Amino acid sequence: MKIFLDTANLQSIKQYNDMGLLDGITTNPSLLAKEGGDPQKAMEEITKIIKGDVSLEVVATDYAGMMDEGHKLKKYGENVVIKVPMTADGLRACKSFTAEGIPVNVTLVFSPNQAILAAKAGAKYVSPFIGRLDDVGQDGMALIAEIKQIFSNYNFKTQILVASVRHPMHVVEAAKIGADVVTLPPDVLGKMLKHPLTDNGLKAFLADWDKLQQGQK
Ligand code: E4P
């Protein structure tokens, strides 16, 4: 399973990239707004830090606008994936970008039918938002399992990119289902590497070592 970081925060991107954990990045207009500053500069810098796929989202809602924006975003780097919304215009743009050899991530997916259509339109990634489904009392992870089964039935090449992840158990469940990618907010990735027994164990090792040193004096 690939791990993407779901952020526009350069410090977090550098931190986890230095640990060798990141296969890519997803951004969206809200994540860029959270960081402030010049979004264009931030997007360009991210594509330079990260070798893997970097999803950059269009904000136009019509086909022509999406195509125009997408072509501009693609200039930031070879690794840019154009993120389009799961709308009729978004699917049309997905088909056109794909025909040009530009990879697409179809975002804001909330049903198996939407995932099927994104795959048919040639998307490289489909992004089901599991946390937002959980928020409204639906089972986000059940959607991942359904899409996985459907894509396997027909050997669809589109990768399932699990988005709107809220906690580390989402990651474990997505991995058990066999999702291709999870995109994680930095705090979720941070929680994945922690365990209280690791901290306690390390503390005890260091205390015992210290005692041994004291005894030798
Ligand atoms: C995915 O690409 C989105 O950026 C993201 O996962 C949305 O998550 P949220 O529901 O926490 O905003």
SSE-based structural type: alpha/beta
CATH architecture: Alpha-Beta Barrel
How far the N terminus sits from the C terminus, by CA atoms, comes to: 50 Å
Query: What value does the Rg take, in angstroms?
Result: 20 Å
Query: What is the N-to-C order of secondary-structure elements (H for helix, E for strand)?
Result: EHEHHEHEHEHEHHEHEHH
Assign a percent range to the helix content: 40-55%
Low-confidence stretches: none
Largest sheet: 8 strands, parallel, barrel
The CATH class designation is: Alpha Beta
CATH topology, by name, is: TIM Barrel
Q: What's the multimeric state?
A: single chain
Number of helices: 11
How would you describe the shape? globular
**Strands side by side in the biggest sheet:** 1-2-3-4-5-6-7-8
Q: CATH-wise, what's the superfamily? A: Aldolase class I
Strand content: 15-25%
Number of domains: 1
Mean pLDDT: 97
Distinct small molecules bound, one entry per kind: erythose-4-phosphate
Total number of strands: 8
Walkthrough of the structure:
The chain has 217 residues and is α/β, with parallel strands linked by helices. The chain has helices at 10-18, 29-35, 39-49, 63-74, 88-99, 112-120, 130-135, 140-154, 168-177, 186-192, 196-215; strands at residues 2-6, 24-26, 53-57, 80-85, 104-109, 125-128, 159-162, 181-184. The protein is globular. The chain contains eleven helices and eight strands. 54% of the residues lie in helices and 17% in strands. The protein has an eight-stranded parallel β-barrel with strand order 1-2-3-4-5-6-7-8, surrounded by seven helices. The structure holds erythose-4-phosphate. Erythose-4-phosphate (E4P) is lined by residues 6, 26, 28, 107, 127, 129, 131-132, 163-164, 183. Erythose-4-phosphate binds at residues 6, 26, 28, 107, 127, 129, 131-132, 163-164, 183.
